[in-house]
Write a structure and sequence with these properties.
Strand order of the largest sheet: 14-15-17-20-23-26-29-32-35
Distance between the termini: 42 Å
Number of helices: 10
Radius of gyration: 24 Å
Number of strands: 37
Helix content: 10-25%
Largest sheet: 9 strands, mixed
Oligomer: single chain
Strand content: 25-35%
Length: 438
Amino acid sequence: MKAVILAGGEGTRLRPMSCHRPKPMVGLLDRPVLEHILLYLRRFGVTEVCVTLKTMPYAIKDYFGDGAPWGLSISYSLESVPLGTAGAVRACEEFLKEEEDFLVISGDAVLDLDIAPCLNLHRTKRADATLVLHRQTSLLEYGLVMTDDDGRVSRFIEKPSWGQVFCDTVNTGIYILSRRAFEKIPQNEFYDFARDLFPKLQAEGAPLYGQAAEGYWCDMGDGEAYRRCCFDALDGRVSLSVPAPEQWQRVWTGSPLPPDIKLIPPCYIGQGVTFGQGVSLGPYAVVGEGSRIGDRARVSHSILDRVRLEEDAGVTGAILCRGTVVRRGGSVLEGAILGDGVVVGEYAVIREGARVWPEKEIETGAHLSGSLVTGHRRMHAVFDGQGRVTGEANVELTPEFCLRLGGAAAELAQGEVGLSYHGGDAARMAALSLEAGI
């Protein structure tokens, strides 16, 4: 069976977590969410996948390529104009031209569902479409689907009030579709599964079925859901491929640990993480690859994605996105989310529930509540007027900056470019990035 993954979306709901990466490329234990979905599909025998793209398509295409490293054949469908969930699948005509039944899956979810009974129901009933449902306790934020005793869909309830909660089965955005249903989707038009196609099939009396699948499913729609997914993975509630060995019970690490580190399980530590003295991690500390944790820094119930914490910094119950720096003595508290490239000044405090958009800089000693959308942007590396680029390694002089600088240098040179470095690992990182850009 082939599968179509709807990875384009209508824009990320995880902002301000990142304005630079599409939601499927947000890391979950150092793997993109989309990679976890691909590994999940492969377990069910899916070998051919088409990924529909809209937001930053090249980031996804460059990462996954043709899918060979994952044992899959991946093709891509790019939405030049919004087509909706069903319209995006209709645009995959060439990929699906010989398929009688195929699978559609949302690129937003973290899941480990057993969909085999749903596939069996679809084939037994010769359904036009079968919806994979999941039983939830928090119901107001999802679309509910009611079925009769035979599994036939009897009613849809979109984002119900409490007075409309008549069942506990929610639409997961995973569908098994037949060719008959596919051909009812108009071409080159905005068309949605939940709002358009499924009500149309129901009104026509077509065989439209739904079945609750056992296992784990979480719509990674906001920061709290994202954090819950990470912690559920550490607790074993969802089976994910973790790219680091479990060194001891519920502690996964791809980096050597100093002898004086204090660890409270569960914890995840990616590759290339460096630690100062007297660091405290856990419980529920997720430290992404390439992070730098300074002396006496403390992290608990938090997710750090290639982050730098200086000495005596503390992070509790927060999400820090790629390139974030918390300087000496800074604190980030429960429920805060810091976007890509944020710099928290010395002894500054990011209070509970605060949101900081990417590339912002918080002044020394400041106390921030609420959201910071506009304001002072962090300084990037600059030329000093004598042909030198100055900036702090991995803060202003990031690999991404050096990559762009190398490309610009090669474009201007129109010939040979000389490159050398000295000064340790930071200089080597910059040189390698410059080389790649050249």
